Amino acid sequence: MPPVRADPGSADGRLGVTADAVLDAALTLFAARGYHGTAVSQIAAALGIRTPSLYNHMRSKQDLLETIVERTLDEVLDDFRTAVGDLTDPAERLRRATRAYALRHATHRREALVVNRDTTSLPEPTMTRMRERRRDHERVVRAVIADGIDSGAFHVDSPALASFAILEMCVSIARWFREDGARSAEQVADEYTDFALRIVGFVPAPDSTDRQADGTGGPDGSDR
Amino acid sequence: MPPVRADPGSADGRLGVTADAVLDAALTLFAARGYHGTAVSQIAAALGIRTPSLYNHMRSKQDLLETIVERTLDEVLDDFRTAVGDLTDPAERLRRATRAYALRHATHRREALVVNRDTTSLPEPTMTRMRERRRDHERVVRAVIADGIDSGAFHVDSPALASFAILEMCVSIARWFREDGARSAEQVADEYTDFALRIVGFVPAPDSTDRQADGTGGPDGSDR
DNA sequence: CCTACCGATCGGTAGG
DNA sequence: CCTACCGATCGGTAGG
Questions:
Q1: What residues of B are in contact with residue A174 (Cβ under 8 Å)?
Q2: Are residues B37 and B65 in the same domain?
Q3: Which of A138, A139, A142, A168 to probe the B interface (max B CBs under 10 A)?
Q4: What is the spatial distance between Cα A106 and Cα A115, in angstroms, rounded to a whole number?
Q5: By residue range, what is the domain housing residue B75?
Q6: Are residues B103 and B129 in the same domain?
Q7: Which pLDDT value is given to residue B207?
Q8: Which of A12, A139, B20, B201 is deepest in the core (most CB within 10 A)?
Q9: Is residue B4's pLDDT more than 90?
Q10: Are residues B2 and B79 in the same domain?
Q11: What CATH number did the domain enclosing A18 receive?
């Protein structure tokens, strides 16, 4: 009886390839060479099997991409909700949201590269859904920034441009971060969080009175 | 019989395809679908000719990519040198460098998308050269930031992280900017320049007689 | 600029 | 998990 679902415990003790292993190999190759630049035969070779055997663990090459993208975007939104929780202070919300996003892009580089490069290769129902999710994420961040402006904590012209800049700056971490580099993922995330607060012109409230911005770009090293 | 060679300015009539036209069509398609996602036949179709005719104007598909990437990176370095000129003030140098880079990514979106997505598809002599050029650009920006820190104008922990953040933030403009959007390329470039100065913790010297006054890092929208 | 055509490789299926 | 094999398409060439 052929195992339809991934069952790691094969009868003869020889560990077969699982659906997750296929997904992981595809993720590595898609990230390195792009979706269209990766042949199904390369995924099979990475797993030490022949191409047709791959189809015992996946539906199609396209389905691999869809699964990777959807799974990743779900996790990003989960990250955001977990990070900001029920906090109300805009600065703290932005801090947590940025930190989680930056951290994710340092620790899930492959996923980030695939999502940001190969979305144009997605079939149509998925592509629209994916765009909506990215837009949702951008909007909640933008709303946090707008809240901060309203409360007088942030001083920036355009919440939209600020949210674009902050989010894309974090995304780009996936392009250069190395696990064996000079800085840990946490250190990078912390620094990028500072950058985010500077971009929105965060000035910690000294006390209750809303102080007028002095117009010189407020943040210096003191808010680190 | 269509003219083999024609004035590029008279674009209305049916003209013979030129090498530049092939490059431009390839640029559009590579940007939209990626290098491996674009078939040579699609480039030909975009120009209204058959695939084999394309080879009167190009050497190979790969050569198109190489030409696009090398040309673009040359222009980026030219941009930088032209923008900063012989200025010495770190803030002014960073301002000009950021503005030029941001502006380029708003006005040359296709080139930016191709360079940032399809570099892994470059053949080896070109790929290394291209990486070196990008690294050179990053280093000069990093040096500007380090200078600003030394002179006391900038206050930021890591010049390297700050330069990554600033450059990649500008690169990402190519992903969302629309010519018919709410802001002009110049407006976006100006805002991103402000973001860059905030990221490095720029505080204008109080006794400076620079023509810039304090509007540079100003978070208020009074001058916009 | 075209028609005719090439070998190679693509993603995927048949059938064990 | 395999061998055998499919039609489609790929980038590119021959030869006008």
A1: none
A2: no
A3: A168
A4: 14
A5: 61-199
A6: yes
A7: 60
A8: B201
A9: no
A10: no
A11: 1.10.10.60
Protein residues closer than 7 Å by CB to strand C:
A 2, 38-42, 51-52, 55, 60-62; B 2, 16-17, 49-53, 56-57
Query: Chain B residues with CB inside 8 Å of A127's CB?
Result: none
Specify if B118 maps to a domain.
Answer: yes
Domain match, B66 and B52 both: no
Strands, DSSP E only, in chain B? none
DSSP alpha helix (H) spans, chain A: 19-33, 40-47, 51-54, 61-84, 90-107, 109-117, 124-151, 159-171, 173-176, 185-199
Domain assignment present for A217: no
Count CB atoms within 10 A of the CB of residue B75. Answer: 13
Domain count across chain A: 2
| Domain identity same for A125 and A41 | no
DSSP B117-154: HSGGGS-HHHHHHHHHHHHHHHHHHHHHHHHHHHTTS-
List the A66 CA – D1 C1' distance (angstroms): 26
**Is residue A49's beta carbon less than 7 angstroms from any atom in nucleic acid strand D?**
yes
CB–CB contact A117 B34 (8 Å): yes
> Average of pLDDT values for B57-73?
97
Closest protein residue to D9 using CA and C1' atoms? B39
Q: Residue A55: CA atoms inside 13 Å, Cβ hemisphere, count?
A: 5
Measured CA angle at B193 (ends B189, B195), to 5 deg: 120
Give the pLDDT band (50/70/90) at residue A12: very low
Residue B46, pLDDT above cutoff 60: yes
% of chain A surpassing 70 pLDDT:
85
pLDDT at residue B222 tops 80: no
End of a domain among A42, A58, A74? A58
The predicted-structure confidence for A13-43, as pLDDT tens digits, reads as follows: 346 899 999 999 999 999 999 999 999 999 9
Residue A6, min C-alpha distance to chain B (Å): 31
Q: Which of B124, B77, B85, B74 is nearest to B101 (CA)?
A: B77
**Would the pTM of this model clear 0.85, i.e. be above it?**
yes
Closest chain A C-alpha to B119 CA, distance in angstroms: 9
- Name the more confident of B70 and A221: B70
B35 in a domain, yes or no? yes
Does any domain span residue B222? no
Here the CATH number for the domain that contains residue A82 is: 1.10.357.10
Structure tokens at B126: 């070109």
| Cβ-defined contact of A34 to B121 (cutoff 8 Å) | yes
Give A69-119 pLDDT, tens digit per residue: 999 999 999 999 999 999 999 999 999 999 999 999 999 999 999 999 999
pLDDT of residue B209: 52
**From residue A168, how far is each of A36, B171, B178 by CA, in Å?**
24, 9, 16
Please judge whether B191 and A118 are an interchain contact, meaning their C-beta atoms are less than 8 angstroms apart. Answer: no
Nearest to B164 among A36, A176, A220 (CB): A176
